[in-house]
Specification:
The chain has 164 residues and is mainly alpha-helical. The chain is built from eight helices and two strands, in the order H-H-H-H-H-H-H-H-E-E. It is 56% helix and 4% strand. It is globular.
């Protein structure tokens, strides 16, 4: 198991607003962490994990938000990564980071088969993307709801319980 998995999962929970157990339920935590580490390389991954740990170490939400702004949102290196990670969870696809980001970090632009290119990492990424869950919907062609389910109002999860 990846030694930074706990930090990665807690940070993903923080940036998506979904509890860690819901992210675990997608079955994508390890795959997304591996993808991120392949794109970033070891030194940038360590930098991201350090910033994530710093943010997560703050117990109060308002102070944690301030820490996030100071360490992540203002960083030309970390913010594009975190923005892509949010998109990955919500849309199920990885978008290639801008050329300027690669210039800033000194990394080379990804080729057509490199993990940093724009792509859908797996079919499961499409099925488990958080955008449908957030909308109280199901991805077309996956997770069928059953005959006539369109006639029922969507069910949204709020604080661990179903709400209509």
């Amino acid at each position: 198991m990846n030694p930074n998995r706990k930090i990665f999962l807690a940070f993903c929970s923080e940036i998506t607003g979904y509890p860690a157990i819901a992210l675990e339920g997608t079955g994508l935590v390890d795959a997304y962490q591996e993808l991120l580490e392949q794109v970033l390389g070891q030194s940038l991954a360590i930098e991201l994990y350090a910033a994530a740990e710093s943010v997560l170490s703050v117990p109060e939400a308002a102070q944690r938000e301030s820490q996030m702004r100071a360490l992540v949102l203002t960083s030309q290196v970390l913010w594009p990564i975190v923005a892509n990670l949010i998109s990955l969870w919500y849309l199920g696809s990885w978008s290639q980071l801008p050329a300027g980001w690669y210039s800033t970090t000194g990394l080379t632009l990804p080729g057509p088969t490199d993990p940093g290119r724009s792509h859908v990492p797996s079919a499961q990424s499409y099925v488990e993307q958080l955008s449908y869950r957030t909308a109280g919907a199901h991805p077309p062609g996956a997770k069928p709801t059953g005959f006539g389910s369109w006639s029922l109002p969507p069910v949204f999860e709020t604080e661990g319980r179903a709400a209509r």
